[in-house]
């Protein structure tokens, strides 16, 4: 039976990856300003760029430096490439509601020319940003001085042809499109279509389809708002386009279901083409069942054959050809099942963890509490728990696996469930599309880990 | 919680039932947690009363709409969440009333508008955007 993990640690020996600390970005002090809370992390398609968004509406982009072929101890480091204010706080006067500037998601467009493009979104508005480099400037104008002042035309006695001369690299970010006023509820997802012309945005009750060039209209493709709001029983929690089929997308719900829709079937995709749901044993049902089954993230594999969902306690891999149950289930922190009462009281039970695939779809990763994050190898069925902490910050030292002791005797180096810090949560992680480089966001710091290069 | 019941109504629960319940709670940690929660908040699952949880969620800024069933179980009807305010004055008055009931653990009240006068756009809290560069870029 395909199913849960056994024990077994991933590090050490054979082909197993050994993860090492590489870099950490952000302030050291414990006093975290709310604006600095990281809210999204995303590599671009080549992995050369790594973007983060925060609660203060700012985007920071890091660029991997070109490897020094002679002394390649490790792969290139990520350094700040560009930073800009993407969204500002707004006040909706009509509804008397504050609109947070927090960046919920960033998605990169595939590179088509010298510039880079990304979509960033807060609760209400999506923006297309162009990030371009300027490393040359024209010099030798006839009518202007170098500092821009105009010359007295009567002093011009000769003509010259202006030429481009190198200058210090300048990276500029400019908003090219603003897609606004299409969402009544809070946007939780954006996803770029494989046609590279359209993208979807999803809020709690609706999904809209946009064309990247057109900002004054968008098509509603899913609407689950009931006529009578008191009949509302579930909401949309995440949505994503299929990586290869431009007509296919999925959306997950707070009830633990995933619906696959085909845009060729009808203009409004309220009727799903496939419904993925794992049947639940009714005798196991408790007050918490529905809350912990709510899916916080859904991600297609790079191959497009599988999709992964994250609910509060587990990660599930689904084969798109099989709707009635996942093909693999991995327990992230099963020991929390006996703590649900306090996790409900402190609201941690509503934390939305994300998940990600590695480039070859062989390993999946997700975050947990106490700044722990987990990786599951789908082939070897082994898993590992690592910690993002400044204590391990010597480059090229292999990270030590962590273990949580659920109950009973705690072994040396294990940490007991009651000692876990639930304020230190890793909600956002990203995996380089081609290499074993991962970006892990703690509350306000960004960690970059790499596998050991010999 | 079932043990409490046993003490109060020893005649009602048979020995078999008692063992069954205890077994079940041993097998299902979720059920044990549920019992703990219901013991702490007996009004859970009943119709509106406590707005404490709603205020808690509003302060956290989490989308209220994400957990409709939760809100029901926390004792609030969807109706009260979806409350439309007549205008910004109405909104500020309602907010002011709610703030009076707030738990002491919340931060300093930045909203200077009370429920006593009609607010103007200038009175509404202006949230400054972060002019400081992100510390990640530092």
TrEMBL record, chain A:
PROSITE patterns: PR55_1, PR55_2
Keyword flag Repeat: yes
Record key words, sorted: Repeat, WD repeat
A GO molecular-function annotation: protein phosphatase regulator activity
Taxonomy, superkingdom: Eukaryota
Family: Belongs to the phosphatase 2A regulatory subunit B family.
Protein name, UniProt field: Serine/threonine-protein phosphatase 2A 55 kDa regulatory subunit B
Gene encoding the protein: PPP2R2A
Automatic annotation (TrEMBL), chain B:
Record's subcellular location: Cytoplasm
Name of the protein described by the UniProt record: Alpha-endosulfine
PANTHER family from the UniProt entry: ALPHA-ENDOSULFINE, ENDOSULFINE
GO CC terms, sorted: cytoplasm
Cited Pfam families: Endosulfine
GO term, biological process aspect, one: cell division
Superkingdom assignment: Eukaryota
Biased amino acid composition, Basic and acidic residues: 16-37
The organism's taxonomic lineage, starting at the top: Eukaryota, Metazoa, Chordata, Craniata, Vertebrata
Keywords: Cell cycle, Cell division, Cytoplasm, Mitosis, Phosphoprotein, Protein phosphatase inhibitor
Key word Flavoprotein present: no
Similarity comment: family membership: Belongs to the endosulfine family.
Region feature Disordered, mapped onto this chain: 1-53, 99-138
Organism per entry: Prolemur simus (Greater bamboo lemur)
Protein purpose: Protein phosphatase inhibitor that specifically inhibits protein phosphatase 2A (PP2A) during mitosis.
Bias kind Polar residues: ranges: 127-138
